[in-house]
Every structure is written in C-alpha cells, then in structure tokens.
Design goal:
481 residues, alpha/beta, nine-stranded mixed beta sheet
Length: 481
C-alpha cells in the first residue's frame, strides 16, 4: 500500500516559491505538478480551510465558517473561538464540531490510519482528529499543547525533548515537530496518510508583514526543514508514494484597521444576542454577523449602511434574512448551512505592491497597518499552493486548470484506491495524472448584484471558476459609484 505525506505551510502564497527564498519547495515544484490556479475557500482563514481540506466540502456543508464563528444552537450569547478547549466542550456537550466526515473518519472504514502533527493553532490541529471516539492505534493529532488521543503526549515526552515555548518565528517548535514526524510518526506509527503543519510564514507575517526580513527568514527555515524531510524519505520515495505540499490561504498587507464594534455602536446598532442585536465574529479580512432572531428590518438597514462604507467589499446574506437587494446569497458560494450567519462581508482590497513588492492590500478588523492579513475575497488571498509528486502524477507539469482545497481529500482517496463519496464538493485532480487523455474544459462566470443607496450605486461582483461540478472563488469586489 502506498503512503501519502502532506506538508502544510500556513499562509504560503505562490509568489513566495523561488530558488532564493524556498529552494527545496521550488525544486520539488519543478519536479512534480504545480497547480497554478489553486484556490482556498472563503473566508480565507486557516481553520475554515483545514476543515475543507479534511472533508472536501465547502464551509456551509462542513459547518466551520471562521476562526471565530457563531453557533446559536450551541451558545446563542457569544462568538465561538475555534480552539481545542472550545471543541472539547462542544464534544462533551454532544454538539457536532463538523457536519461532514473527515479524512480520519473515512480512512477508518478501510482500516487505514491518518496522523497529523502541527505547531500552528490548537483549533487547526484539533480538526484533523474530529469524529467518533474509536481511536486507531496509529491515528491521531499531535500539538505542543495537547494530543488526540491523549496518550500520545506521554509517548512523545518519553522519546523527545520538551516542547519549546511558542515564539515568532516559531522555528524551534517546527524543528522539533519535524524530528517527531520523521522518527515517530513516519517510522514508528507508519500511517497511510501523514501530515506535518508549519505555522510559518503565517505567524511571522501577521507579526511583521509579508516580505519582512523576519518573515522571510521564518519561511527559509520552514523550507530547510522540508528539505530535511525529503532527505529522510529518500530519493526514491515518490516512485511508489506521494508527497503533497499545501497551504491554507494566500496573503495581503493591511491598508487600514477598522474597529468594528465601536463603529457599529457609533452608527446606532446594538451588540448582543437579543432580537435585532448583532453578534460579530471577526476573521481578519472578513466578518460574520448574526442578528438576533434574524430580524430582517435590522438586516436590511445594516446591509444598506455597510454598502456606504469605503472599507466594505462583497456582502452576502443567508436564507433567514435574504434575499436583500444588492447582496449575493451565501448559498451561491457554498456558505449556506445550518451554522451560517445572517450576513458575511469581505473588506475591500486592491492589488498595489507593498514595500517588499508583494501585491495585495486589504482592510482588516485587527492587526496593524502594513502587517500581514488574510480572510477576505482578494485574489491574493484566495490563490494558494498545491504541489503534488508521486506515481500517479505527471512530472514537471504546470497545471493551469482551476483546483481548490476541496479537491485535496478526493484526490488523496483516489490515490489510495478508495471510492470518493458522491456527497463531496471537491473532485479528483485527474488532469494532473500521467497519460491524462481528455482536454479539460472549465467555465468562468460571475455573480453580480447592485443597489441604489443615498444617491449612489453599490455594485458587487464575485468571479467563479467551475469544473466537473466543483466551484472555486477567484475573487470578489465592490464599487460605490
């Protein structure tokens, strides 16, 4: 049985793959398949995209719509942080964390194992091992702060040094994680699918900015550790097994920071869980809003007010309050579901280069001007990384057809000889396989909406790519004329 090794670089964008900055990733990409038109899901934040990587589903289907999200059935009084402690409480309360099967659960049915180790957020790590309580001996997730199942922590601490403190850059933790991954996960546990996740360059880019020398040094260190992994696997590993490089989202530079709670209060809106009040889940470059009892009058007033703000980009509304003039339904981009908020909006973006010549600026609800951010519908954040090398994949190929994080799970299942469930939103990336015969035809289309407000016209457009029934968001933007 062939194995699949996945290496995740949090926040890596295609523009950062070069001979000088990431020589090992660059060389690997030239040998395997580089997916040039790869997409994350929106909101373009980590835990949403990890859930889509693990389930092959759009966020509306798997139910995790933000690093901070709203679930009024679980707790109608507050915004929920996607953390291990919160997820533990949800599980103890018999409340579903995800509404779709994960790779871990699917592989269990075929007596296969999946093990992940990551040094990013606890919520990221937790999602890799969400599901039933039956724990296979060689499956689980490992993080410096916890493991699932819990006994993995004791095994690791008896074999390896104590986890270093979390730092920026997070180099020491990732180096130890790579030690554990090579010696313990791959050699001893030997699961059919194994993943290691680097918190860089994301952590440093949030702290210092995209292209800053500290962010660049963190990425170089992560690339060096990837080179160490390839040496450990050996030069012939991909003759029979597959290695995938993934990232969760791309990146932008913050143009301005909007203190939304104060702005909403100052504009006459009320915050809270009661009828007509707003629960606001901030996700960097995007915002999820739930309105108490889904009050349609408040929703319409809020939408009209948002459209007049110079920092507001695309605006989407859910079934409980929509349709509202000038907005686009959440269902049109895969965000409608049992845990969907009433309103989602992206901050406005542009394609200017920052001081380090990385393109893309965006407004944000947190952070600082000129620091790094993601979460919006900017193409600089929606375009992320997928590179594959293995026995089924063509060599030295640039794949130009659209693909997305939703396609990673079905492609992994296909490489393992497992039938892909029909319910999955993603598809198998067969156009990248050796001897692919058929010409791949895909469509581009747009979603448009407009509304007259205060003597102005708010116009928005979301560009989509579609192939074999799968849908990918290219970008979304708005103008006020």
């Amino acid at each position: 049985m062939s194995k699949i090794v996945i290496v995740g670089f949090d926040g890596l964008q295609p523009a950062q793959i070069s001979k000088s900055l990431t020589p090992n990733v660059h060389k690997f990409s030239s040998q395997g398949c580089f997916f040039e038109d790869h997409h994350c899901v929106f909101p373009s934040v980590t835990r949403v995209n990890i859930a889509s990587l693990m389930t092959g589903m759009h966020p509306g289907r798997h139910g995790l719509l933000g690093n901070n999200f709203i679930d009024t059935k679980y707790d109608p009084t507050r915004v929920i942080p996607a953390s291990n402690k919160e997820f533990d409480h949800m599980k103890q309360s018999k409340h579903r964390i995800l509404y779709a099967e994960t790779m871990y659960e699917i592989l269990q049915k075929f007596d296969m194992n999946y093990m992940a180790i990551g040094v990013g957020t606890t919520g990221n790590a937790y999602i890799h091992h969400v599901g039933n309580e039956k724990a296979f001996f060689n499956s689980g997730t490992i993080h410096p702060e916890f493991t699932n199942p819990p006994h993995l922590s004791e095994e690791i601490l008896t074999r390896f040094e104590q986890w270093p403190i979390e730092e920026v850059p997070n180099n020491r933790r990732f180096s130890l994680a790579m030690d554990i991954f090579c010696e313990y996960v791959l050699k001893e546990k030997n699961p059919e699918v194994a993943l290691i996740w680097s918190s860089e360059p994301d952590k440093s880019q949030h702290a210092y900015g995209v292209g800053h020398e500290i962010s660049e040094s963190a990425l170089k260190h992560a690339d060096k550790e990837f080179g160490r992994l390839l040496e450990n696997l050996g030069p012939d590993f991909t003759d029979e097994n597959t290695v995938m490089i993934v990232s969760d989202h791309g990146y932008s530079t913050i143009s301005d920071v909007i203190g939304l709670e104060d702005v909403f209060l100052g504009s006459g809106f009320s915050l809270g869980p009661d009828r007509g009040e707003l629960l606001i889940a901030l996700n960097g470059g995007s915002v999820l809003i739930s309105i108490g009892e889904s009050d349609k009058t408040v929703a319409d007033n809020l939408v009209s007010w948002l459209m007049a703000q110079p920092w507001c980009g695309t605006i989407l509304t859910g079934d409980r309050v929509g349709p509202l003039g000038g907005t686009i339904p959440l269902s049109d981009i895969g965000l409608e579901g049992s845990r969907s908020p009433d309103i989602v909006f992206s901050f406005r973006w542009d394609s200017r280069p920052n001081e380090f010549n990385y393109h893309g600026f965006v407004g944000a609800s947190s952070g600082g001007v000129n620091l790094g951010m993601h979460g919006s519908m900017s193409p600089h954040e929606m375009n992320n990384v997928l590179i594959c090398k293995g026995p089924k994949f063509s060599e030295n190929k640039r794949v130009l057809t659209p693909s997305g994080n939703i396609d990673v799970l079905p492609t992994i299942l296909d490489n393992l000889g497992i039938e892909v469930p029909e319910s999955i939103n993603g598809r198998v990336l067969k156009e990248a396989y050796k001897n692919a015969q058929n010409e791949v035809v895909f469509n581009r289309r747009s979603l448009r909406a407009e509304r007259e407000i205060e003597g102005f016209s708010f116009k928005q457009e979301i560009l989509l790519s579609e192939l074999d029934g799968s849908m990918y968001i290219d970008e979304g933007s708005s103008v006020l004329e």
